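stage 2 :: seqdesign
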């Protein structure tokens, strides 16, 4: 009996260990907002790439999938509706879907590449907080739903509430949710950002007026003081997160007003980057405000996120995978060997990247001190605007194409 008991105990412990290895990914850029996964993945891929496990048609858009408790969530457009779909991560079975008809704000701005039937496609990634999930549609619809069944708790259109026009390539800032508030960027001709009471759906405050951008807001601490960082359409802002008052402001004007990359903050240093004939900048933050440490063209990203790990910052700089040192910005290496495309994205996992190019190429990349090495690749999608970021969850890689969400085996078997 003792040997049997010991065997059972070891088995239960092993099972518990394997279950605990699964990492939840409940929001844009993961649980810590770093775009770094701790899920175990294969050291190499079989010939032809990882095995496809299932495919689900979820609709069009550029929102990235998120996951919690064995379920995936994705926001996409089907017909004229934004549809939030919950799926079983193991089988791809649809557990529930909820929708609303998208407000037609398309006539207010030029028709960008990401428009379907004159309606703005969703681009912002949902956020799970407690027993609710929050989405921000391309037309400015901010919605809170019950996580269990997707039933709507409240909904407001940020553009209508603030009297702003839609920005050129749709509202795209993934919601930042705190204990009491939800933060998103605004449009053109209204507040740059708003805070919404997450319990009632009422606007708690509006920032100063200006041009909203596409980047997700981040909450940081400077000294002992919390600050809300908003990468707007024409400037970078540090705001009081309780009142929306501007604490400091740094102009950052780019071609087409595209400021879309989530800023990165660590130890008093704040990094931003934009493409479109621009580059990057490092700011030093203190109680007195923000000062420019340096500005250059070492990394110039369109909208895909960078990753900071162990003093190295990685970014897709107009199709080149570049690595610079933090915080001085010195170039460590620059490689054109990885097929990223101008807008391809990646997730860091250990010393490897899972890369999804904007032309649908999925790659596994080893990061070495002197540069990257491709370990495997597969043409996953035949589509030129693959802009959603890949997700690594429960031993699988999930990727969003034009309309389909695909699950692949990340174990390398």
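stage 2 :: out
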């Amino acid at each position: 009996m003792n040997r049997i008991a010991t065997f059972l105990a070891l088995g239960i412990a092993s099972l518990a260990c394997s279950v605990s290895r699964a990492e939840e990914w409940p929001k844009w850029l993961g649980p810590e907002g770093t775009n770094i996964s701790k899920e175990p993945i294969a050291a190499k891929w079989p010939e032809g790439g990882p095995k496809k496990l299932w495919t689900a048609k979820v609709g069009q858009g550029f929102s990235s999938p998120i996951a919690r408790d064995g379920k995936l969530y994705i926001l996409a457009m089907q017909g004229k509706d934004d549809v939030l779909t919950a799926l079983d991560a193991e089988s791809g079975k649809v557990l529930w879907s909820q929708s609303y008809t998208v407000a037609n704000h398309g006539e207010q701005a030029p028709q960008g590449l990401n428009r379907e039937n004159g309606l703005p496609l969703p681009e912002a990634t949902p956020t799970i907080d407690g027993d609710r999930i929050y989405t921000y549609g391309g037309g400015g619809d901010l919605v809170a739903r019950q996580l269990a069944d997707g039933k709507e708790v409240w909904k407001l259109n940020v553009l209508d509430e603030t009297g702003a026009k839609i920005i050129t390539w749709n509202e795209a800032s993934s919601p930042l949710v705190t204990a009491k508030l939800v933060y998103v960027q605004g449009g053109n001709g209204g507040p740059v950002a708003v805070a919404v009471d997450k319990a009632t759906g009422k606007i708690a405050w509006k920032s100063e007026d200006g041009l909203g951008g596409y980047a997700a807001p981040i909450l940081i601490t400077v000294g002992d003081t919390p600050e809300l960082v908003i990468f707007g359409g024409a400037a970078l802002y540090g705001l009081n997160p309780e009142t929306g008052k501007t604490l400091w402001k740094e102009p950052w004007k780019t071609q087409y007003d595209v400021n879309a990359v989530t800023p990165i903050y660590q130890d008093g240093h704040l990094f931003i980057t934009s493409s479109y004939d621009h580059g990057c900048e490092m700011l030093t933050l203190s109680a007195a405000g923000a000062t420019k440490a340096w500005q250059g063209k070492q990394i110039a990203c369109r909208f895909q996120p960078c990753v900071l790990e162990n003093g190295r910052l990685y970014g897709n700089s107009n199709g080149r995978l570049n690595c610079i040192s933090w915080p001085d910005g010195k170039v460590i290496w620059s490689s054109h060997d990885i097929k990223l495309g101008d807008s391809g994205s990646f997730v860091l996992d250990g010393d490897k990247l899972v890369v999804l190019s904007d032309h649908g190429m999925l790659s596994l990349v080893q990061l070495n001190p002197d540069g990257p090495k491709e370990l495997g690749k597969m043409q996953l999608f035949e589509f030129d605007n693959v802009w959603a970021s890949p997700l690594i969850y429960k031993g699988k890689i999930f990727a969003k194409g034009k309309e389909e969400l695909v699950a692949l085996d990340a174990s390398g078997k």
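stage 3 :: structure notes
- The domain at 62-271 is CATH 2.140.10.10 (Methanol Dehydrogenase; Chain A).
- Confidence is low (pLDDT under 50) at residues 1-20, 110-114.
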